[in-house]
Amino acid sequence: MAVEKLFKDEATEEKGERARMASFIGAMAIADLVKTTLGPKGMDKILQSTGRGRSVTVTNDGATILKSLHIDNPAAKVLVDISKVQDDEVGDGTTSVVVLAGELLREAEKLVNAKIHPMTIISGYRVAAECARNALLEKVVDNKQDAEKFKSDLMKIAMTTLSSKILSQDKEHFAKLAVDAVMRLKGSTNLEAIQIIKKPGGSLKDSFLDEGFILDKKIGIGQPKRIENAKILVANTAMDTDKVKIYGARVRVDSMSKVAEIEGAEKEKMREKVQKIIAHGINCFVNRQLIYNFPEELFADAGVLAIEHADFDGIERLALVTGGEIASTFDNPESVKLGQCKLIEEIMIGEDKLIHFSGCEMGQACTIVLRGASSHVLDEAERSLHDALCVLSQTVNDSRVLFGGGWPEMVMAKAVDELARKTPGKKSHAIEAFSRALLAIPTIIADNAGLDSAELVSQLRAEHHEEGSAAGIDVISGSVGDMAELGISEAFKVKQAVLLSATEAAEMILRVDEIITCAPRRREDRM
Amino acid sequence: MALAFDEFGRPFIIIKEQESKTRLRGLDAQKTNIAAGKAVARILRTSLGPKGMDKMLQSPDGDITITNDGATILEQMDVDNQIAKLMVELSRSQDYEIGDGTTGVVVMAGALLEQAERLLERGIHPIRIAEGYEMASRIAYEHLEHIAQKFEFDATNTEPLIQTCMTTLSSKIVNRCKRSLAEIAVKAVLAVADLERRDVNLDLIKVEGKVGGKLEDTELIYGIIVDKDMSHPQMPKEIQDAKIAILTCPFEPPKPKTKHKVDIDTVEKFRTLRQQEQKYFDDMVQKCKDVGATLVICQWGFDDEANHLLMHRNLPAVRWVGGVELELIAIATGGRIVPRFQELTPEKLGRAGLVREKAFGTTKDRMIYIEHCANSRAVTIFIRGGNKMMIEETKRSIHDALCVARNLIRNNSIVYGGGSAEISCSIAVEAAADKYPGVEQYAIRAFADAMDSVPMALAENSGLQPIETLSAVKSQQIKENNPWCGIDCNDVGTNDMREQNVFETLIGKQQQMLLATQVVKMILKIDDVISPSDY
User: Fold this and answer.
1) Residues 500..519 of A with a Cβ closer than 8 Å to B: which?
2) What is the CATH number of the domain that holds B48?
3) A1 alpha carbon, distance to own chain's centre
4) Fewest beta carbons less than 10 Å away: which of A493, B225, B256, B277?
């Protein structure tokens, strides 16, 4: 007798071959989707949101593309997840990781069809990944000791990262911006200290790095527009009306005159607060919250520059830059640390007025002002720059560097191939497949650039037969070139993360032999 | 619809709204139930053993879980069938009681049901089958005790414990670094174990995960990790020799439970109220400072003013710490959880050698490490991994390993794995069957056959010829009188599980048999299923 019904309505179950096929197809579809964005000649995608306004994003960034997709296939979700993690962890290589995982699965599918058990494939992949990692470790260059060389390494990495993005035309300019910004951080990976302001107008070339700090706010009316040797109090306090925090308090009066009295007392309270703030001996006051007109007027009277509504990050950054502390109470002026800077002035970028703090005590933070033709360009430029900054800041910590342009893949593929020849048993097929999957990356880079990939990759392979070759794909000239001469470098950390997470994801999907999808949660019908 | 009709074809109305209910009776009911139970077992069968496959589960909200853990699979499967739900319960109770072997127990129950079906077809009464199973399970239970071995370990010699944990972990996706994870699990359990009372409080072990990095970076921290950051960005990120005040009261003016109203009708009152309010904040911070605290951990939030006051007085603070974490911190640091500022005294402060904030990756993920605690009884296992699903699965695997280690500390008897215990039981039960007069004898034999299904599934999943392998191992066991022969899943080349170091805990195995038998008995006794039909 057949089982009546095991699962709830609409829940589906897929088993064995079918389940495996569903996950292979889903994962490969995702990989193929982002495949064309890989490499310096990769193309962009337009994403249209389903929300109100149908806003459009144009991007080349794998993580951004995948994040915006609505995916139903469970295996595809795994890939989206690894791309997201790659973005969070190292910032770049979000496309590569998905493409590599997709290629690994594509190879695995062939093996499964050739009746090799998934577990055997997994163990082969594991050995291969370990071997590939060791191969990279042997070839890394570490220039940490030599500051000059290290800086040029960073420059190269930034240029390589940016070359696949919209900024590739001005990559030198932006690479310099990014390197300068990261060097200022002095080894911390706290990218929040680098502020990116986007202002439409001008061209991408007009973007610049500002040593000081720029706050996208206006100066209050009637207050000084320029302050030298400013003493800044950074605060997070209510400057509208202070609510009474004692629970259950309420105002109860029986006549109009009483109301006026209370109101007077309230005003008095605010005035006192302002007085206290001014008593700190400051000439600039920056508040995270709103400043009402009344206190603003008081500040103006005292000749203090009051800036309201700086967002939270802005406040934190400002505190970091000027070396002050974020204050919320003002009773002991002597012990509050004030921020300092040489000059505060209002500057114009395009048509907007911004407040510029320069000559700050601590030079850690800085601002990058991006200019560009449209907001889409700016958004994409910001994402690209963010990628570059992430990679650079990670490289500052882990200064091991590799060549780019498909070079690491070739090195790994060679090592893995050799291992395959030495390994007895069915595993060797899987190891061989791993090397083929690695080779797919230079192939895709070449394909995307419209080059003859088969020719190029085989040439590359021949070049790499020699020990210590630095050959990679030179997309610009469309031939095999020396990566050391061309100055194409990548961070070891990124490559390692790509390799390990892609293998892990492929392994995870391979292990699945059954997919059970629960019934989607019912939305209440609001009709 | 199983309705009764009289000779004129009119249905008898027995149950209220009989037409709208589906009803199954007698043998049909049993057979449907058995089929449902078997279906559940079939799903899990492929997950058994070191070469078992994983299942991918998509929740109603579209979240993906990839797992190998029987209890998790069943829990997320969203089953509708009543009998299937029983099986889910079965796996869950194994999880609660033992923590490991959740797949095995379901596979065993499925096999028992399958055997029962054949007996039913031969006309044996279900109750007789159930009784036969009961007797057989008792024989198996005793036999397990007989073949079990005590094994000795102590705080210095943890190797046997690690080996056992490795057996558990080898069936999970983490088997790539099972050695290091097993070591971590054993160290964690030993750190919190009370070896004299043979008791382990697993609540003291916190398992925390964070995506990023790789599995090899997973570490054991003798202290607590809290997924929070300092309340004020400018507070110090590292505190040596911290004295921690653990508070469950908010940094806010008190809120009496009774309803009250403070009426303000004059300016004076307004002023005093304000002063009072400021004083509250000041007093609270002062109290913390007075008792000598250098770090405040608070279950509640505090507003900007209090935050700044704390910052100002150089008193770092962490806010919104969950209740469980708070308790763990209290245990680890030897502090007391203080519900009122008035009750704060220096003795109630917790102590930790080092408290630091650590940032991860490129986003602003920060965590607070509390290390070198006064009382190192609370530990944290901090898992890193490539993606969210990996972390979740690792968490489950670590949990299993922790449970196994705990069970061993409670009872240091082990049986050998790889299906050897099941095969040995099968032989013992088979031999004992002949001594029982009556129909039960058949049920006992059926039980013995059902026992074979676990090693059979193991062999099948490992790509071996199931029947061939099983009969070979079985004959070897009888011939050599060696209950340690099992299925060689990893292709090591030996059948002797002692050499392969594959152990399982005795209580785990015993529990599996008892629970499986119980559920099967329950299912067999059902002869009528009445369910409201769909609308």
Assistant:
1) 500-501, 504-505, 507-508, 511-519
2) 1.10.560.10
3) 56
4) B256
Spatial separation of the C-alpha atoms in residues B279 and A333, rounded to whole Å: 17
Asked if B57 and A262 come within 8 Å (Cβ–Cβ), the reply is: no
Per-residue confidence at A240, pLDDT binned at 50, 70, 90? low
Residues in chain B within 8 Å Cβ distance of A504: 214-215, 385-387, 390
Size of interface A-B (CB pairs under 8 A): 242
Structure tokens belonging to residue B39: 């279906």
Q: Write the pLDDT tens digit of every residue in B298-327.
A: 888 777 777 777 877 788 888 888 888 888
Q: Does B385 touch chain A (CB under 8 A)?
A: yes
- CB–CB contact A250 B264 (8 Å): yes
Given this model, what pLDDT does residue A311 score?
67
Buried b (16+ CB within 10 A) or exposed e, A509-519: bbbbbbbbbbe
In a domain, B498, yes or no: yes
Q: Could you tell me which residues are beta bridge partners of residue A234?
A: A286, A326
| Predicted TM-score (pTM) above 0.95 | no
Residues B55-84 have pLDDT tens digits of 888 888 778 888 888 888 888 887 778 888
Instruction: Give the range of the structural domain holding residue B505, as residue numbers without chain letter.
Output: 14-148+414-530
Residues facing B360 on adjacent strands: B365
Angle at B243 between CA B237 and CA B247, to 5 degrees: 95
**Whether residues B418 and B347 fall in one domain:** no
Nearest residue of A to residue B60, measured between CA atoms: A520
Whether residue B32 lies within 8 A of chain A, CB to CB, comes out as yes
Tokens found for residue B32: 């449907």
- Residue ending a domain, among B374, B401, B430, is B374
8 A C-beta contact, residue B54 and residue B68: yes
| ipTM reported for the complex, 2 dp | 0.75
β strands within A405-511, DSSP E: 471-474, 479-482, 489-491
B511 plus B424 within the same structural domain: yes
> Is B479 part of any domain?
yes
Q: How many domains is chain B built from?
A: 2
Q: Is residue B144 part of a domain?
A: yes
On chain B, the residues whose CB falls within 8 A of the CB of A127 are: none
Q: Are residues B30 and B118 in the same domain?
A: yes
